[in-house]
Design a protein that fits this description.
By secondary structure, the protein is of the alpha/beta class. It is built from ten helices and ten strands.
Amino acid sequence: MRLVRERKPLVHQITNYVVMNETANATLALGALPVMAHAREEVAEMARLAGALVLNIGTLSPHWVDAMLIAGKSANEAGVPVVLDPVGAGATTYRTETARRILDEVDVAVLRGNAGEVATLVGVEAEVRGVESIAAADDAAAIARVAATTLGVVASVTGPVDQVSDGERAAAIANGDPLLAAVTGTGCMSSAIMGCFLAVAEPFEAAVAALAAFGVAGEDAAREAKGPGSFHVGLYDALAALDPQSLDERVRIT
């Protein structure tokens, strides 16, 4: 499995300042270069310089939405692949409509969300409270397949077992640890890491490899953790310590 050691910027359009720090640290730990940008005056230029663009809808406001659309369209024009993280889609109308608008106006390569978020975007009944998926009417593998086919993306549905589909191919990734759900921002980290891999691989392979790598890092961090706090710190160390041989031996992909 190929690890990212990409020196071209990975541009994040993230609407949450705390998550910016989390995802920047995760990106750096993998050896990629994070750049956080949200000003409408610069995002088009910044996106054109990137190896990949990650759009994370986080905490929304109209100027953030405008900036994401500008960045996404600029990335499309420059051939820069785009990841969309529809944080909390399904929780409010504004979040759901914003995520759908981005999918309508931007060519998104990879959609990364939990089962409730992704189900909402394809019209499957789901319950989302805050940014957490409480229930979905179908299983994650089916949701990923439907989303990929309906939206024309590589759909990555994360959960206890991550599911990735491009409509024809499908993969289930069983790596990870329950502590990943006990720390805020790990979903956003996985989207950022997906952008790192997307900069150097085609979308389906990038999504699968990114989730497997993040899951293995989670397992390593959990081994020495005393709880969520020490796990959080250890996760960055585990990401930095990943190497291709250990990943090849440890990934659980079906």
